Amino acid sequence: MSRSRVVPDVLAAVDLGSNSFHMVVARRSHGQLVILDRLREMVRLAAGLSANGLLDDESEERALRCLERFGQRLRAMNANSVRVVGTNALRRAKRKRWFLERARAALGHPIEIISGLEEARLIYAGVVHTSPMSPDKRLIIDIGGGSTEVVIGEGFNPLLLESLSVGCVDLSSLHFEGGRISEKRFERARTAVRLELEPIQESYRKLGWQQVFGSSGSVRVIADVLRRDDPAEPNITLASLRKLSERVIAAGHVNDLDLPDVDAERAPVFPAGLAILLEVAESLGVDRLRAADGAMREGLLYDLVGRFTDEDARVRSVRAMEKRYHVDDKQADRVEGTAVALLQQVEESWRLEDPLAEMALRWAARLHETGLDIAHSKYHRHSAYLMQHADMPGFPREEQLLLSALVGGHRRQLEFETLEDLLPPWDRLAEFLIVVLRIAVLLHRGRSPQALPEVQARAKGRSLHLELSQRWMKDHPLTLEDLEQERQYLKEAGFRLSFG
């Protein structure tokens, strides 16, 4: 579905969490990832998010300074391929475009904002790839600053994924304000978690599991505290969580926590993290769990490797969408082949050399007719809606929006206003990809299995010229008429199309 690429020597993953920012750099050696460096900074982005979804200046500056340091390390280590994702706090933030552009400049790489389910998938991948292989079903619990992910999977395949809208930063500000701790506050925090768990509790218990892992900083710190109390017990048990909760409540304030493993940075959110883990364990019937070595950043690294091999989760999602919406795969093949052939001729003129340009065009070519499964009338709009709102594992939010823009613009009148929602440079480049896709779809409108004659394409500025066989054009008057209509559509959108 895409041109094969060599896996880079050095890869990096950056996780812009609601509480902490993490970066891990690795080298791929003999099929394994060898960690070269790790960085972590407590940024507390979620704490700087106002009720109306705006990030305050202080939080933005903290984040940007951290990203500048991360960027400096990435450049020094010559990371060849880097993936950067934002999670709950950036999902909720409003008017974030300016911040994301400054963050990209500071780090030197674009930032993807991923959905809660995609976060859960990556967390599962990170835990499984860094744990001993097992045929058992595994329950993974990850407590973040703005959300908590709960996943059941088997082998490398997640079976149930949920992202709960409760995290240790938000819960701290709501129920442990000023650092105060009491039995009543702790119970209110647990109730908030219980309400989030209630809709999924039955389905998770029904599927079941044999092993339980907890990932994230909160779980690892809890494990360190409990290991100090009982070095012989490798697990976090439900009984030990209850005893630890009593100690934390008795302290009365985060400044008075007598827990050497809880540093000053972690202390403000520690009671909330503990309340979340205890409630998840009790509600789901977890007697014991282990702290996992891996988390989402490791999942990002392995997912990144997959993008250079035949394991790209996005490719699997596209194939699943094709099957679900009964795509005519032969027509998809035809449109994809022509679209890529046209792109290769115009990519330099239109500055579409970024690998994502070809991948997005391929995916759009394969999925542009998904809306036909809903209705023929305005099916391109149905396709665009599906691309924007469907759960597509492996796709960050921005890539789904790009895909939606491409399939939504592949026919009829062009409306480039929707491209304003895309992050640079795709807010400018997407219109060129749309033009390429439109021409490919048009040339195959007859759905003929016969191969097209060679099509030569030349692009300059906002002009596109197509060289087609005169004999072929004479034998296909309907296509010629479609090209005349397309010339008018493109003219109204500020493009000039010529052919001959």
Mean pLDDT: 93
The outline comes out as elongated
Helix content: 40-55%
Radius of gyration: 25 Å
Main beta-sheet strand count, sense and barrel state: 6 strands, mixed
**Spans of at least 5 consecutive residues with low confidence:** none
> What would you call the structural class?
alpha/beta
Question: What is the topology, as strand order, of the major beta sheet?
Answer: 8-7-6-9-11-10
- Count of the domains: 3
CATH class of the largest domain: Mainly Alpha
Number of discrete helical segments? 18
Strand content: 15-25%
Structural account:
The mean pLDDT is 93. It contains 18 helices and 14 strands. The protein has 500 residues and is α/β, with parallel strands linked by helices. The chain has 3 domains: 110 residues, Nucleotidyltransferase, domain 5 (2-Layer Sandwich), CATH 3.30.420; 162 residues, Nucleotidyltransferase, domain 5, CATH 3.30.420.150; 188 residues, Hypothetical protein af1432, CATH 1.10.3210.
Summarize the model shown.
The chain contains 18 helices and 14 strands. By secondary structure, it is α/β, with parallel strands linked by helices. It folds into 3 domains: 110 residues, Nucleotidyltransferase, domain 5, CATH 3.30.420.40; 162 residues, Exopolyphosphatase. Domain 2 (Nucleotidyltransferase, domain 5, 2-Layer Sandwich), CATH 3.30.420.150; 188 residues, Hypothetical protein af1432, CATH 1.10.3210.
Describe the secondary structure blueprint for this structure.
Layout: E1 10-16, E2 20-29, E3 32-42, H1 57-76, E4 81-86, H2 88-92, H3 97-107, E5 112-113, H4 116-129, E6 137-143, E7 148-154, E8 157-164, H5 168-175, H6 183-207, E9 211-215, H7 217-229, E10 236-237, H8 238-251, H9 270-284, E11 288-291, H10 296-307, H11 313-324, H12 329-346, H13 355-367, H14 379-389, H15 397-408, H16 426-443, E12 456-460, E13 463-467, H17 470-475, H18 477-492, E14 496-499
Parallel strand pairs: 1-4, 4-5, 6-9, 9-11, 13-14
Antiparallel strand pairs: 1-2, 2-3, 6-7, 7-8, 10-11, 12-13
Helix pairs in contact: 1-3, 4-10, 5-6, 5-9, 6-9, 8-9, 12-13, 12-16, 13-15, 13-16, 14-15, 15-16, 16-18
